[in-house]
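Lecture 7, part 2: worked example. A protein chain together with NPW.
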Amino acid sequence: MSIELLTPAEMATADALTIAAGTAGIVLMERAGQGVSNAVLREAGADAEIRILCGPGNNGGDGFVAARLLRRQGRPVRVAVLGDPSQLRSDARSAFEAMGGGWEALSLDFVRSAPAGRVLFVDALFGAGLDRPLEGLARACIEALNEAGAPVVAVDLPSGLNGADGRMLGAAVRARHTVTFCRRKPGHLLQPGRCLCGTTEVVDIGIADATVASLEPTCFANAPGLWRASWHPPAPEGHKYDRGHAVVVSGPLATTGAARLAASAALRAGAGLVTVACDPSALIVHAAHLTAVMVRPVRGVDGLGEMLADRRLNAVLFGPGAGVGEGARSVVKRLLDAERAVVLDADALTSFGDAREHFLALSRAARGPLVLTPHDGEFQRLFPAFAGLDRLSAARAAARECGAVVVLKGADTVIADPQGRAAINDNASPWLATAGTGDVLAGIVTGLLAQGLPAFEAAAMAVWMHGEAGRVAGAGLISEDLLPALKLVVAGLAGEEDR
Ligand SMILES: NC(=O)C1=CN([C@@H]2O[C@H](COP(=O)(O)OP(=O)(O)OC[C@H]3O[C@@H](n4cnc5c(N)ncnc54)[C@H](OP(=O)(O)O)[C@@H]3O)[C@@H](O)[C@H]2O)[C@@H](O)CC1
Ligand SMILES: [K+]
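Predicted complex, written out as structure tokens:
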């Protein structure tokens, strides 16, 4: 599947450019309806009746085309129309007329009278043109559809879902399968949209790749095609010093585990060397646990500064288990002034909840690449002004404001850079919602930065690897299980046969 995601507005432009270049709109609609009809034939049992709900715009038009094609296949099809068909416009009107009758006005009974297990519904009420919350009959029918629990194939988007941001406008259809066109939209990946779509299929309706490219999309599905070219497996003649030296700054004696998890993940992600920097009081506990990861005692911020005089230490993580307060703020200040790639996570971010302007001043002046990895709570403390936005817009706004790459973690993690580029991740296992997995993610980002990846690519690749490691580790995983799983993920990316 292509990685570019198009907003509904970009998709409308791609449609318009294709039509202007000589392909009639009704031809695009025919192809869309054909794709829907194919999906329905796959999803519906041989004896199933098909009931199609058609709306007042072109989404309904796709439904009329699918109805005509399915009837031609001899399938029993009932069509219900929302609104007055005499008001249909352009392509939808043509598709309605070509259907040649056999329709009824949409009613709640159309949905509620379906015998259980015998009907497949097609939701062609609203797609890209939905622009306000649903109400009245449309909303009641959608709620009845969800209550009935019958299988639904959604056309383009489950009706009620905002394709731009994955949020519901009033109510939304819960589909088993969604057929969209040309490219996926952000709403197919962002929650709750992803769950509402069921499985998502992309049908080619003849919009050229060059047309999509001319729109210069800025939003992507997070997949290897986005960052794989930035990462290189070890060269045959290379040595560990070619792959960077990551530093993880540890918390105090009582909270050292997070740093160890992160450091091990940085090593697993391929950093050549990894050192945990800790207060002398925590040295013994780290030394007792760590093997390939090195440990170095440093005394306070000045000790850390002295350590960083060694230019080979090229990427630093601070935050996991660090503790909140003035001490953490001064470490952040020192790191952002150190011309190193820096990852700030957890307590490093929370420490600025009451000093947001201070944080913005520091982050904007950072002298090296900077990645922030907040979960929702940390994000809201640091960027309360963006808390009401959808996750895609919120991550982009924060990245722009602080001049850093922002990884807004969740089931649909968003990675955004200050220029507006964004990736939405969809490979996370729900089992990743457990203690310590955020430390592992921050460590992977740091390990990739140490290898010289640019900040956005490092962050996006890390989120994907973390998701894959979750899948490999499987149900019941704890964060330690991600470390051996990362070995298999890296091997897969390197294309090794021997996994
Ligand atoms: N050539 C193409 O472009 C192609 C497009 N394709 C298909 O077209 C779809 C986009 O079509 P679209 O732009 O007509 O929008 P659509 O989703 O049908 O809805 C618009 C209608 O809904 C109405 N309306 C909106 N919100 C409402 C609400 N809350 N409650 C009630 N009414 C509401 C709005 O009414 P109005 O705002 O004017 O009152 C308008 O009448 C796209 O998803 C894909 O399936 C494919 O065929 C490929 C080629
Ligand atoms: K729909």
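Residues 25-43 form the longest helix (19 residues). The pocket of NPW (ligand 1) is lined by residues 15, 25, 28-29, 32, 55-62, 126-132, 134, 138, 155-156, 181, 205 (CB under 6 Å). Keep this in mind for problem set question 3.
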